Amino acid sequence: MTNKKEINASVIIIGNEVLSGRTKDLNTSTVSMWLNSIGIIVREVRVIPDIEKIIVDTVIELSSKFNYVFTTGGIGPTHDDITAESISKAFNLEYGFHKEAFSILEKYYEPGQFNEGRQKMAKMPINAKLILNPSSGAPGFYVKNVFCLPGVPSILKSMLGGLNNVLVGGDPILSKTINLRTYESEIAKSLTNVQDNNKDVEIGSYPFFRQGKLGVSLVLRSVDQIKIDKCNSQILEFVKEKNIKLVEID
Amino acid sequence: MTNKKEINASVIIIGNEVLSGRTKDLNTSTVSMWLNSIGIIVREVRVIPDIEKIIVDTVIELSSKFNYVFTTGGIGPTHDDITAESISKAFNLEYGFHKEAFSILEKYYEPGQFNEGRQKMAKMPINAKLILNPSSGAPGFYVKNVFCLPGVPSILKSMLGGLNNVLVGGDPILSKTINLRTYESEIAKSLTNVQDNNKDVEIGSYPFFRQGKLGVSLVLRSVDQIKIDKCNSQILEFVKEKNIKLVEID
């Protein structure tokens, strides 16, 4: 992909529950699709355990390698929620009660209900900027180029909109999907030719199986609609020659 | 987790379609749960693009860091399937037609149907060992401690059984889940005490929302059933004191 103004990101999924296989990661998909829409491309995802040293090292490494880093998970009230403290250590920032976060949470809970566990959710780098949480009160936060979001998918999703004006994206990444009733091996050679002729378009080929029938989805991605269209025409040409059926899938 | 005989692994998901958010990764969960059952713990997952240099570097790094590495994706017939060639380069192994793989595929297809695209699936490090594929013919393979599996979840799943006798695991990782009708913040302090008293058990706390009701799943993991049971009793103690309801979820 030769996006000249590429703005990129990585996602760090913090959570033993994903590593153990108990929980399937849905957050990467949500974050990536949202980032694509504002012109930021996700280049790497890591899933790591709730271990401070690993969180610290991973955040330091990836924050210097990519324009943005997004972490998910580990900002709740329990002992295994150590993201905020780890981020503070990674950047050598003072960790403690964040005034604005404390005040938001204090107002969110009924009088007398703002207990020690809940107060922990106001602890973070004290000068962090907040990511407001329209679903359940407890905010996320960001420092430098690292944005810390919760692990619960519905809550995470509800918080992304608040960041649209904070992030600076590049050209939006456009895509076009062509679904064919064929096998990958039938089109592999023609597709290689098209890819060779269209270096600026990333062409992905993905077999699918729906309603008892096999097929292949071709996904064309680029920041340039004209290049996608050109690539699309060349694909449709060999599709026609080979008498392959185009299909609609959900 | 202080598993004294820890045997660990990492998973590398190779595929632009996961990074772009188009496809949700289901393979990590499948591979992790199967590995847990044979006493191997997954310590890191990386999702990386279909770019040779990144695949080569990631495989070299993780294969020296963990006992086993599993890759998923990129072993099909199309131009974006570059895992086998990248693995050959990572370990400086000759890449070409694998005799046994070629023969399996030749027999799998009808006469005249074993075309160039399909033949590509027989190309890999020529001395690799094969991972047989009961679903769709094309085998995976392994060299050194790196095991290469396909990206299609159902096919990947069908191939794992063939590896049970190849991998050497440690003590199986046991787990116990306790589901409570409560909020994390209500139990955070008590849970920290239990974790402090049971350092050899990894306790995870995960909020859930089912049928309109909130709750918390506590997951206890260890290689030692006695330690899990002890930890479980201590949790049930504070659960009783706080008058919290135990619930069943799927």
Short summary:
By secondary structure, chain A is of the alpha/beta class.
What's the layout of helices and strands?
2 copies of one chain form a homodimer.
Chain A: E1 8-14, H1 16-19, H2 27-37, E2 41-48, H3 52-65, E3 68-72, H4 83-90, E4 95-97, H5 99-108, H6 116-120, E5 123-125, E6 129-131, E7 140-143, E8 146-149, H7 153-160, E9 174-181, H8 184-197, E10 202-210, E11 213-222, H9 225-241, E12 245-246
Parallel strand pairs in A: 1-2, 1-3, 3-8
Antiparallel strand pairs in A: 4-5, 6-7, 7-8, 9-11, 9-12, 10-11
CATH architecture level-2 label of the largest domain in chain A: 3-Layer(aba) Sandwich
> What general form of chain A does the structure show?
elongated
The CATH class of the largest domain in chain A, by name, is: Alpha Beta
What is the overall pLDDT average of chain A?
A: 94
* Structural class by secondary-structure content of chain A: alpha/beta
- Beta-strand portion of chain A reads 25-35%
**N-to-C SSE series of chain A?**
EHHEHEHEHHEEEEHEHEEHE
Q: What portion of residues of chain A is helical? A: 25-40%
Uncertain runs of chain A are none
Write out the CATH superfamily name of the largest domain in chain A.
Answer: MoaB/Mog-like domain
Q: How many structural domains can be distinguished in the coordinates of chain A?
A: 2
Question: Biggest interface, and residues per chain?
Answer: A-B, 63 and 63 residues
